[in-house]
Amino acid sequence: MLLLTLGYALLALALTFVCVCATDLYIAQKRLDDLADAAALAGANGFTLIVDGSTVLAELTDQRVREQAAAVIDVAPEAVTLVSAAAEGVSARVTIASPWHPPLLSLFIPDGVDLQATGTSRTAVR
After folding, report:
1. In a 3-state reduction of DSSP, which class is residue 21?
2. Is-above-0.90 flag for pTM?
3. Over the stretch 51-101, which tens digit does the pLDDT of each residue have?
4. What is the domain range of residue 86?
5. How many domains, in total, are found in the chain?
6. What H or E segment, with its residue span, contains residue 74?
7. C-alpha distances out from residue 35 to 69, 71, 79, 80, 124, Å
8. Helix/strand/coil percent split, the chain, to 5
């Protein structure tokens, strides 16, 4: 009876560790998604207005998108790297990456996972 109880206790503990780690991984990915969206929004707001007669156009460049996205990422509390930042017409697309390490040690969980997120945002001025 003691052996069976000990086995169930170990199984419950392993299951708890896996659930805690899976939840932490999910939250880390959501935070990275939010940061990618914020960096893309900042990149889309880095447009230059071009006046051509009575027409006003917003121009995005890869360099301005990268500068604006890097400014957002620099203040991030986690270790995040900017993978790519590009202008696509009036939209900005930013891809970032960050490593994730499990909060609890377990034999069933990998030591770390590289997470990646992409955010896209359009300028309000066309």
Report:
1. helix
2. no
3. 888 887 788 889 999 999 999 999 988 889 999 999 988 899 999 999 998
4. 2-122
5. 1
6. helix 62-74
7. 10, 12, 12, 9, 20
8. 45, 30, 25
